[in-house]
Amino acid sequence: MRFSHLIAALCLVLLGPALWACAPARPPACRATVFEGTRFTVCTLDTSRDAVRMLANDRKGVALRSFNSAKIVLGSRTRAVRFAMNGGMFDPEGEPIGLYVENGATLKPANTNPGPGNFHLMPNGVFSVDADGVVHVETTGTFLARGATPKWATQSGPMLVIEGSLHPAFQDDGPSRLIRNGVGARGARIAVFVISDDPVSFGKFARLFRDDLGCANALFLDGTVSSLWSPDLGRKDTGAPLGPMVVALKGRR
pLDDT (tens digit, 9 = 90+) per residue, 95-150? Predict the structure, then answer.
C-alpha cells in the first residue's frame, strides 16, 4: 500500500466525521504576482466555499470609512476574514455614488447620469453576487436589462474588460499611473480582486485581468484610495477614508 493511501485509511478509521482535518490546508486567499514588470496582489473569492459581504455603514447608519471600523461591525466574524478591499466609488461622506445592494436591500439605485470622472467613463459596470452565490461583472446597461435582483452589488467605473475587449477609451499604457484596484469574473462562482502594488495605467491593468487572470469581464473599483486587508499577508492598509467595502469570509454563511 502506498504511504499516501495508508494515511488516508488511518484518517478514515481514526477521525470519522473529522476527516476534513486530514485534508490539505487551503492556499492563502491573496498572492503576489508580477505582470509586465508591475507588482500586483491578487485575491480570489470562491463562493462555493466562502461567503461575501458588502459593508458601508455601521448599525447607526454612519459610514465606516476604514477596515478598523469594519472589524467592529463584523464582530466575532472578524476571525473568518479571508480578505477585504474597497469596493466602489463614493461621495465625500463615504456614501456610494452608484448602485449599492446589501443583503438583498437596494440602499442606492443605479446611477446612469452623465458626469465627469472615472465613474462616468462609459460604460461603467456592476459587480454583484446572487443569493445562490453566482457572481457577475457586467456593464450597468446589461445589469439593468436583465432585471437582476442580487443579494450583494456595487456599481463603479469604468469597465476594464468587456466581453474580452479592453475599454475603448484606454491607451495601451497611458501616462496616468496610480495605485488601482478592480474585480473580474472567472466562471460562475469565482471573483478575482486585484490591487496594484505599483502605480499602473488603465491599459496595463485591464490586460492583467484579460490576459493573465482569464477574466472576460472586469471592473475598475477605484484608484488612489485603493486598500487591502489580508490577514494571510499580515496586511491592513490604512490611509485615505474608504467607502463601501467587499469582504470575503471563510464558510458559506
Answer: 999 999 999 999 999 999 999 999 999 999 999 999 999 999 999 999 999 999 99
Stated pTM of the model: 0.90
Residue 17: partners with Cβ closer than 8 Å, 6 or more residues away:
none
How far is CA 104 from its chain centroid?
18
- CB-neighbour burial class of residue 54 (10 A; exposed 0-12, middle 13-18, buried 19+): buried
Is the alpha carbon torsion for 186, 192, 197, 200 positive or negative?
positive
Helices within the chain (DSSP H only) = 3-15, 67-74, 140-145, 202-207
Give residue 108's region: left, alpha or beta (phi > 0; psi -120 to 50).
beta
Is pLDDT above 90 for 14? Answer: no
DSSP E strands in 87-172: the ranges are 100-102, 105-108, 125-129, 135-139, 152-156, 159-162, 165-166
Instruction: Say which amino acid occupies 25.
Output: A
